[in-house]
Specification:
It is built from one helix and seven strands. It has about 90 residues and is mainly beta.
Length: about 90
Amino acid sequence: MSLFDEHNGPISGLAINNPSEYDFLNNLVLTSSYDWTVKLWSPDSKDSLRTFEFSDDYIYDVAWHPTNPSLFSTVNNEGYVDIFDLSKDM
């Protein structure tokens, strides 16, 4: 299965996590999509690790925090910015 098979719409953003002291967070990948979801990927897995379904509209982009490897944010068509902390809740 590929990243394109798991999303049900066009992929709108892709972000690769920066290397950190926490090995389990290194090189994780996030994809956002017009299917209203964000998916978390590991280079070691063929399937997504987690799907975040929280938006009621297209998600335009996703980005990792530049210094905190467990934080990422998204922005959707309604103009909302959502922030997630993987160290608090998967």
